[in-house]
Every structure is written in C-alpha cells, then in structure tokens.
Amino acid sequence: MRTRPLKVALLGCGVVGSEVARIMTTHADDLAARIGAPVELAGVAVRRPSRVREGIDPALITTDATALVKRGDIDVVVEVIGGIEPARTLITTAFEHGASVVSANKALLAQDGAALHAAAEANSKDLYYEAAVAGAIPLIRPLRESLAGDKVNRVLGIVNGTTNFILDKMDSTGAGYQEALDEATALGYAEADPTADVEGFDAAAKAAILAGIAFHTRVRLDDVYREGMTEVTAADFASAKEMGCTIKLLAICERAGDGASVTARVHPAMIPLTHPLASVRGAYNAVFVESDASGQLMFYGPGAGGSPTASAVLGDLVAVCRNRLSGATGPGESAYAALPVSPMGDVVTRYHISLDVADKPGVLAQVATVFAEHGVSIDTVRQQGKDGEASLVVVTHRASDAALGGTVEALRKLDTVRGVASIMRVEGE
Amino acid sequence: MRTRPLKVALLGCGVVGSEVARIMTTHADDLAARIGAPVELAGVAVRRPSRVREGIDPALITTDATALVKRGDIDVVVEVIGGIEPARTLITTAFEHGASVVSANKALLAQDGAALHAAAEANSKDLYYEAAVAGAIPLIRPLRESLAGDKVNRVLGIVNGTTNFILDKMDSTGAGYQEALDEATALGYAEADPTADVEGFDAAAKAAILAGIAFHTRVRLDDVYREGMTEVTAADFASAKEMGCTIKLLAICERAGDGASVTARVHPAMIPLTHPLASVRGAYNAVFVESDASGQLMFYGPGAGGSPTASAVLGDLVAVCRNRLSGATGPGESAYAALPVSPMGDVVTRYHISLDVADKPGVLAQVATVFAEHGVSIDTVRQQGKDGEASLVVVTHRASDAALGGTVEALRKLDTVRGVASIMRVEGE
C-alpha cells in the first residue's frame, strides 16, 4: 500500500460534510485498505469558522474555499455546499488545479452538468455525484455502469423524501396538505421554506440527472415538466382509494415516440396499491428502472439525511481515489445518443378527472362528446348527485397530455360544468 | 473513438450466452459508444457445434475452448458455462494469455474466488461477476463500489428465484411442497433436477460471494450453513400466517460477536408480512443491505433468466472493456479484514417451534423448564389440544442456534413430547 496519503478538501461542513469528515476519521483504516492508500482531510471550507466542529482539527478550517481548491496538492474536492454559485466556480477551479471532484449538488448538476463534465474531461479528472440523487441509494453507478450494456426505457421513482412523508401522512391519516406539512416541518422532514421540495424543484433536478444518464442524452432542469403537490387534497386521496390507488409525487423519465425522443416530468400521480412504489413509506425513496434485457429493477432506501448522503459521497470518494492511484478516470458524461426532449404535451398516460356538474339529464352526454372530439377515450365514468349538484369522475384510456389539456379547456367552457375539481395522472399500470 | 475493435470470446452459448451474443450484435453501436471502441465477437466455444445458433456466424463456433482462450488476441473472455471444470482452468488460462474475464459462475466463485482473484491480479487483469448473484440486479458493484465508504453489517435476501416461486405458490394457494414444485417445473422455473435450488446450494454459493464482498473477508461455500426448503409444509405456512409472517428461503450474512466475526447461512425462515422481502413474488429476487451510514437499502429485480443475466454480463463487459482501453483494472478482491467465519451455533435469532405433546397437565411446565435450562427465553406459547393429542407452539426471544439445538435435543427426550413437528427461524424483525 502507498503510504503517502491522498489529500481531500471538503467544501461545506453542514449535516453531510460533518458526517463525511467524521467517517473519514473513524473509518480511516478501512478506507485506506479499500483505496490502497490513506486519505487525509487537508482542508475544510466553511462560512462560519467560529462554530465548533467536533473531531475536526481547527487548523484545517478556512473561509477561503477558492484558495483551498487552488492549492494544487489536493487530490479530491468534495463539494457539499449546494446551490449554483460559488459551487460551480469552485468545482471548475478544482479541475483546473488538478483535483477530481465528488459532489452532492443536484441543482448544479441538473443545470450545468454538461459544462462540469466538459471541464472534468478537459482536465482528465473525475466528476462523481452518487449523492446527488436519492441519498444513499446506489442509482447513478448502477445506471451508468451496471446497465451500460442494456437499454433503459423508463425510470419511475419517488426521489424526494419530504413530499413522500407528507403524502404518506395524508394517505394514512386523512390529513390535509397543510396539516401534514406542519407535521413534516415539526419533525424536521421539511425545511422552514419547503418550496424546493413541495413544488417539485428538487425532484425535477434529480429527474434531469437520471434521464440524462439513462438515455445517454443531455437533459437539463428546464427540460423537465414540473408540477408540485401542494394542491393534492384529502378528496384526491379518497378518489385514489376508490380506484385501488394511492398518490405519490413521481419523477418519470421515458423514451417517447418509439424511442426517438425522451420525456422527463415530475408531478403527483395515482399509482395502484399493488405497485411496489405504493408501499414506500415515510421519507424513503425508491426508483424503478425498466430496461430491455433486465426487465424491472427497483432500488430502495433512505433518500436523504446526513449519514446516508455521506455514505454515497464516501463510495464515490473511494472510487475516485482508486482512479487517481491507477491514473485512470471513470465513466464521464455519456450523451452520445443526443435524443430530443419532447414537451409534456407529447407524454401519453391515463387521467383521473373530477368535474362538478349540474345535476340534470344530458350532462354526461355533453361531457362524453367533448372527450370524443379531442380523441380521448373514456375508460370509466362515475356520477354522483346530491341537492342539484353532481360530480362526475372520468378515468380515461391512454391519451396525450396535449389532447387531455384540450379536453379540459373545452370542458371548462360547458355551461353544465361548474368546475374541474381535480386532474390527476394515473401511472405505474 | 478507437476503431480497432476489442475482441470478446464467449465460453458457452446456452440461454445466457446466446442472449449476450444477440445483444452484442443488435446493440453494437450503443456498446461502442459507451465503451469508446467497437467490440467484436471473436469466437464462441460450445459443446454441440452442430446446433443452429441464430445470428452467430458459424465460422466463430468452436469446440476447442482452450485454444480460444489461448489465442492471445482476446481482450475479454465471457464465461457462461457454469460448474467448476473446465470453467476454472479456462478462466486462469485466459488470464495467463492476456484476457480479462467476465463470469456468471456462482458455484466456481464461491468455491475458488480467492484463487481466481489471485490469478487475475497476478496478470493485472479484471475479474467481474455481477451476473453470478441475483441475475440482473446490480448488487456486486453497489456492494464493492457504492458502499466502499460504508460499513455493511448485514445482507439479507431472497437470491433464488426457483425456491421463491415455490414458496410463493405454497403461500398463496395453500399447496404442498411437491405440488408447488411440480408447477414450477412445468412452467420452466425449476430444472428437471431441482436439487441445487431447493436444497439451498445455489443460494449458499451466492451468500458466500455476498458475504465476502460485504465484509472484506474470504467466505467460501463450505463456510455457509445451508438448509433446504423441501421440508417446509402447508402447516408451516399456516403457523406463519398466525404469526403475521410468511416463509422465504433467505440468505443471511451478518457480522457476529460485536463485529469480530461474520456468519453466512441459507435456510427457510419466517419473516413478518410488513417486511419488504415478504412481498417479493414469483421468481423475483430482492436483497436488503444494512450499513452503518446508509441504513437499509433494498435491491429488487429478476434473479435469473437469459436476458436479465445477459444484461448483468454486458454491464461488466462494458466496464472491463473501458478498463482495457484506459490501461487500468477495477477493484479486485478485498479481503483485508480477514474476519473469522463463526459456526452456525453462534448465530443469534428467534425461533418458532411446533411440538406434538401429550394432552395432560404439567406438560407446558416441563417444556418451559427445558427451555429455561438451556438459557432460551420464551416469548409466547400457544397450546392446542384435541383427542388426547396436543400441540404446543413456542416462539422464543433471541437465542443462539447452539442453545436452541440443545433445547430441542432435550425436548425430544421428554416422554410427554411425542415429536418436534417443525423448527423455523424468525428473521427480519
């Protein structure tokens, strides 16, 4: 074994970073044995240097992250600060100064993954980011290595723990969205400002990364259709139950149009209770991958948290260190397929639509005509009337999102339709 | 991209081999793009050369596997013939003649993994074998790479599809073992001679491989405690249901004695219906991995079959070819921890024991005394009597297998105990 240690610079020392530093210390011998050389924490860049950080030599702490990544003797930079800047500049600076990079930064990778990969390649360095998607669950490596000889057709997953906690709570207790969110916040599952989670931005970033790797095609955050879950109601869960379904916030990446294009989207959807994703509880994540040869695979585990994310970071750190020692680099960006990303209107799925309608004869005929005119075939209809008001629940066969959108627009114009109470996609069948 | 192709020799062209050859042809462009050079099928060694093999140039077919692996121009040998010999000699010969090896041979790896790894390392070549465990499910790579920075404490899984099909059938239909086996055979899920599956040899080989990788310790097939599932009865399933459990054939690899040793075992066991492994149906496989930092991860998918296994082989092929191009090798054997493997007697778990006893006063007191004398604490007891016969169902707290064995031996000697109807371990709680 080499005795000269590999030097690691840590950017960020919050929940994940402190756990990375802790494990690097407590498991130093194991890491050295697995890498073939010791690894040494050579510097830790933080914003608040005065905070006490247990187990970390105060001499390693710096507020000057730029100077740290420019030192020239750093083998691997671990970036766990998140956000676009200064993370982006620090990572590219690290590559230029001879370091490989392990990052957990989903937002940055979803927005600028191509540029970061290009910078890594230009400097013959590694860029690894298992921790950016679904915490500890090995997903990036299986997709880009284990399934490298297969053709992935679909990735369907629960990739945000906060929203799964909220939806699970709504499902199991009948609570409304706000009540469930309040509990998630109180328990530390939701941040003070939950926007990134509940509006689907976090899941959309992960969908962009997964779609890119799965389909060997550049997919950016802007390419991902995104709908949050703040408007999911207790009534939606009641409707889902009647269908033998529950509701999950899903990230779905698919080949479309006979494989000539891809789509990526995040939205709440009904899925059958018999689908393995339906039983993913609390803040857990799970991702289904469907491929030509391997069929259906599922990966399940904790999707967030300091320790699980640190585990993913350290797995990458071991791989990158091994590559440094052997003078090789791991797989870089694979975007050779360069498939176009189709808009949401091209996505084909099923829909569950609840309408508030006038309780009089002929309404169903009118509504059914609108669906037919837009080429959306109806699977089932259920009418419920009381006190001159009635509700109409329509479940469609598979149709394009554009056709469904046109249908709903036309329905809203009908005098007999008082409102569209909810539209929910039905997936996983 | 390099234009000179990498040359692949295929040993075996059965269900898996023919699928590997097919995908190498139909997905040649994708494989080339992902590897960075084209791959070419340079020879296929078979036993019956006269059989027509669709899509494979007859000029590539040979019965002389030894000459093929000795050619010297082969980059990667893909071994899918199975069994110990001639596979072992062919693989070591391949290393000596400059090739890396991708194998799906669990029996050989479980028996001679250390020697094969040594041969690979001596020749600076790769030995990859994702397909040896749980078919298409990425498990070897996540364990040896993604979790390389974590400490794995337990691997608990369903790693044999045939037995899971049979047990699932018994559970869902109330069928006996023979009836369920007959159906599995008729549907092609069980081989004409099902011994390797139903007696747990196949699962034990996989347990040895998984334990070795998870604990960085050499674990051989002989180290794995093995109990088949041919004696599981419909009555056992009825008992399991009363416990809120089902029965699965589990492979369990654990750290024992405060982490100072490891254990590996395969046997039927009751697991709670709420455990994710309980809902693994049909011939599917699933493996739970518990680690210090990442918590509980689960990997799920088809555990066998030509296409899924071929997907795993091709994933390895891409990785090994990429390593060839960069002049590097991937992770080899990691056995630095070299922990002792403890015998089955040291395993600590819970037990469900059904006794046929005389229906007279004092029997329970006698039985309870025997348990107490052996230090096995009883959790619950249920007595059922009819016609002078009675059954006593005892569920214990956690106890060592040795203590339980001593208890059962002493119980058999009691006049009032007419027989031990079944002993089943209870796992996953």
Automatic annotation (TrEMBL), chains A, B:
Gene3D superfamilies the record matches: 3.30.70.260, Dihydrodipicolinate Reductase, domain 2, NAD(P)-binding Rossmann-like Domain
GO annotation terms (biological process): methionine biosynthetic process; threonine biosynthetic process
GO molecular function, one term: NADP binding
InterPro entries: ACT-like_dom_sf, ACT_dom, Asp/hSer_DH_NAD-bd, HDH, HDH_cat, HDH_CS, NAD(P)-bd_dom_sf
Pfam families on file: ACT, Homoserine_dh, NAD_binding_3
Tree of life domain: Bacteria
Binding residues for NADP(+): L11, G12, C13, G14, V15, V16, G17, S18
Catalytic residues (positions): K206
UniProt key word Metal-binding: yes
Sequence ranges assigned to domain ACT in this UniProt record: 352-425
Catalytic activity, EC: 1.1.1.3
Binding positions for NADPH per the UniProt entry: K106
Pathway in which the depicted protein is active: Amino-acid biosynthesis; L-threonine biosynthesis; L-threonine from L-aspartate: step 3/5; Amino-acid biosynthesis; L-methionine biosynthesis via de novo pathway; L-homoserine from L-aspartate: step 3/3
Record keywords: Amino-acid biosynthesis, Metal-binding, Methionine biosynthesis, NAD, NADP, Oxidoreductase, Sodium, Threonine biosynthesis
PROSITE patterns: ACT (PS51671), HOMOSER_DHGENASE (PS01042)
Function: Catalyzes the conversion of L-aspartate-beta-semialdehyde (L-Asa) to L-homoserine (L-Hse), the third step in the biosynthesis of threonine and methionine from aspartate.
Family statement: Belongs to the homoserine dehydrogenase family.
Protein name per the record: Homoserine dehydrogenase
Organism listed in the record: Streptomyces cyaneochromogenes
